[in-house]
Each structure stands twice: as structure tokens, then as C-alpha cells.
């Protein structure tokens, strides 16, 4: 009897029991290797088995016949510090196959601190996993406000202490936004001092570089030098070439990245698949105009003598850029006047009864900024450069977007369709990259870079973040004119084992988790 009892226990515990089985899918595991057919068994939020599993020992099964099964997509460049709490279901990300995002980019992170942000993510319950960088601009402004100068010794030490604290609270690294204030006032040595702290805490350095147009080579070299001086892994954000005079230069700029990697420096890039960027209207002003905060800026804009200098500097830059007006700059969201949303600066100038030339457009820019500014879309890139950068193997796909919850805005379509656009246009339609390569760029490559040890691959023991889509119909539907449209073709999205999108319908599941950097003992991101 004792022998029979032990046999029954052995038989029961050896049986494979799953919460969910995905059947008959074309599996692309995230490594870049070719697809294969198989089933995936999920138990307790993890991938428990891959093979020919059947349905005998599962609570639920779904058929993936005719569809591709991949790791959940990891978006390494997002801005969701506040928007995720406005809409924790993160619909626009889920419908685009994204299960994990990295926020805190471009030098800006949660104002109340990294620890508070990550705790709030877990207490809120979000549909996606979230990691965050600590923003250099956020740190610098806390210590120095918007001062246009170098930090003194005590200020540098205080910034380093704040970065140390942020890493200890769970940041995955540090970001800079060297086109924005106050980061634009920082010298390279200041950033190197902070990057050394991040490196010591196993983090990475992600940078919106100082320039992405006429002075891009110098900006890339500065970013690489920070990596060389500290040994920190470097991620160059939304790699591009802005401005018509720079079009066709991507072989040269990519060559700088290749040379750095050949030297042994861990330098990678990310990209969104569009020829337009999106940022605020203030970037059209000379950076010195923004020093000291809003009151100081408004004084400079309304003082006729000072504004004459501002206008002349903007006219000179426009001439260098070969721009006759600001027709390339379109308002995405103007809180002070939503009637401007979707209109270009030149359109607004014309509506105001003035000829849309560069001088009058500068006046329009001033008036909008005095009313509180606007989020903009800038049509300034070349499709051939986008494709050339897309082919570079150490390049990740990233949206540079937030969670969309403002229906009256006219946001960049990348907020809805980044991954679907890559799969439709650059994989299926133009064969710019293979499907397996695209999935690697969206999964294991970002997981490796940001040290998410349990994500990015389909293999037993990994988190069950999984996307199932139809490779023949997946498509981005969001456009610049009509952006508020979800991607199509994604049938199922699973986050930590929970069906979050089922048969193209949100289930309401919010199984996402806060992901902590490696400086936190016992936390495996």
C-alpha cells in the first residue's frame, strides 16, 4: 500500500498542468532564429513548456493556427510618467503588441522620485510592465533650477547623490535630454560624473543627444565619449537625421556607431519608423531664451529689444536649414487653444491674416508659447534614411510616445502604430528587414540591453509576455490626419500569463508589474 501511495503521488505531480496553452502557432522566439511550429504552456505567469502539448492538462487553450507567436514587445523609449495613471489599461500600447515599456527618457522622470513611481505602478495595477530611467534634467533642475552654468562642487555632489538614490530605488539607468533645458546647459564632464554612478549600479545611459541635425556628428561623438570614459552601456534615443540638408547622411552617422562597437563600446540605438518627430514648440527657440524659467522666458519674448535678437538668431538658423517657413511644424496639442490642433505654424500664420513666411511664422511661434506652448509634430526626415537606419542590426524599435487619453489632441501616429508599421511596411511590404529580425529588435535585444532577465524570449522559465498576430494583416491604422486609430492584426496579447487582449478585445486584465534595476537586491527585472 505504501508503494502504491508513492506511485500515485509521483504520477500526479509529473502530469503537466497549465493555466493556458497556445496551440499550433508559428513560434518566433525572439533570438532572430527561424520560426518553428509548436504549442506553449503557461503556468503561474511563466512559460512552463514548449512543444507538442495538446489540451488534456490545461484550464484554457487558444488556437494560434495561421498566426505568429512572439515574445511581448519591449518599447525602450516611452514617456508615460503621468499618462499611465490617467489610463492604466494603456490601450494604445496593448493594441500594438507592447507588453513592457521603459519610461523616464529624454532627461525627464517622475518628479516625486523613482521609488515612489515604481510603488505607484504596482499599487495602481497597469496593463503593461514598466521600468524607468532617472532623468538628468529632473535631477539638475531639483539641484540648480534652470541655471545656465556649470554646477559647483557641492551641486555636482548633490546631483550624484540623487542619482545614487534613484538607482537604489530601482532605476534601470539615466537618461539625458541635451536639447531641453536645463540639460542643454550641462557640459560633458558633468554627465560623465553622473554616468559613473549609474555604471557602478549596473545601469545604462540613454541619451536624446545634443543635436540630431546639422551638428549630429559632434553629438554622436559626445555620447560615445561618455560611454568610453565610464564604461557604461550607451543607448542613443530615436536615432535620425533632421533637416533636408542632412538627408542621405545615415551611412556616415551609422558608421560612427559601428566604429564605437568595433572599439568594444556597448553602443546601441533605437528608432521610430516615421519621417516626422514630435516634441514641444519651445525647441524652436534658442536655448538661452528658456533659462531661468517661464517668467524669464516670457520677459525675453515680450521685450522688443531682446526679441529682436531672438528673431535674428531664429532667422539665421532657418536660413542655414534652408527653411522659408515653419510649414513642417504641426500642432499636436495646444492646451491653451485646442482649435490649433492639427494645423501647421504656417497655417496658423495665414489664418491670422499674415503671409506665411519665416519672419511671420516666428511671431506665431512666440504667440503660442506665450499662451503656454504646444506639443508639436515636425516633418523633417527622409524615408531612405529611415530605411537605412532600420537595417542596422543593433537598432531597437521604440515609439517615443505616451499613453493616449486626450481624444481632442492630434498626436503623432507612433503612439498607436509603431510596431505594426514596422511589421507591415518594413517587413511585409518592402522587405527592409525579415520578420524574425524585426521581432528580435522588439524583444530580446531590448531585454538584453536593459537587463530584463526574465523577458524578451520564448523559452521555459521566462515571463509569459506573449503576442499572437496575423503576419498577413497586421497593420498600423493611425495617420497624421486621423491618429486615434488602433493597430489591427494583433489577436492576443498576454502579460505575465494573463490574457489582456483576446480576439481583438481588451479583457480588462492589468497584470503588468514595476520592473526594478539590477541595483535592487532580490528584484529580477
Explain what this protein looks like in three dimensions.
The chain is α/β, with parallel strands linked by helices and 525 residues long. The chain contains 17 helices and 21 strands. Strands 1, 2, 3, 4, 5, 18, 19, 20 and 21 form a 9-stranded mixed beta sheet that branches. Strands 9-10-11-12-13-17 form a 6-stranded parallel beta sheet. A 3-stranded parallel beta sheet has the order 6-7-8. Mean pLDDT is 95; it is low at 1-14. The protein has helices spanning 2-14, 83-86, 91-94, 114-124, 136-144, 153-168, 188-200, 216-230, 250-263, 294-302, 304-320, 345-351, 358-370, 383-390, 414-429, 435-442, 444-449; strands at residues 20-27, 36-43, 46-51, 61-63, 68-71, 73-75, 98-103, 129-132, 134-135, 173-177, 204-208, 234-236, 267-271, 276-280, 329-333, 375-379, 395-397, 466-469, 490-495, 498-502, 505-506. The protein folds into 2 domains: 72-278 and 380-452, Alpha-Beta Barrel (TIM Barrel), CATH 3.20.20.140; 280-378, no CATH class. The longest helix is centred in the middle third of the chain and has 17 residues, at 304-320.
| CATH architecture designation of the largest domain | Alpha-Beta Barrel
DSSP summary: helix tally: 17
Mean pLDDT across all residues, rounded? 95
- Give the strand content: 15-25%
Tell me, briefly, the overall form.
globular
Query: What structural category characterises the helix and strand content?
Result: alpha/beta
- Work out the radius of gyration: 24 Å
Please identify the top-level CATH class of the largest domain.
Answer: Alpha Beta
**What is the assigned CATH homologous superfamily of the largest domain?**
Metal-dependent hydrolases
- Overall strand count: 21
Sheet with most strands: 9 strands, mixed
Overall tally of structural domains: 2
Low-confidence stretches: 1-14
